[in-house]
Amino acid sequence: MKIPAIKQLVEQYTKEDLENAEAAIAAEQQPNIEIPGDDEGEQLTHAYAAIQIMQSMEENGVDFKTALREYTGRVRNSIS
Question: Which Pfam families did the record assign (predicted)?
Fold first, then answer.
């Protein structure tokens, strides 16, 4: 997971664009937008993270940095 790639996605695309791209990658198809990543797994991770961060920004009225911090905290907790 690369934070600059996620930030780029949040800034450049709508949540719908990212959801469509995520679905395409999951179905092993080429997404209609450019998703950065070394492989399909990393691309899927970046798209999913961007969607989750955008949802947090919308639902909680927080900025990108706060939403990112919340998301990475959830990821760390799920790993440990």
Answer: DUF6952 (PF22264)
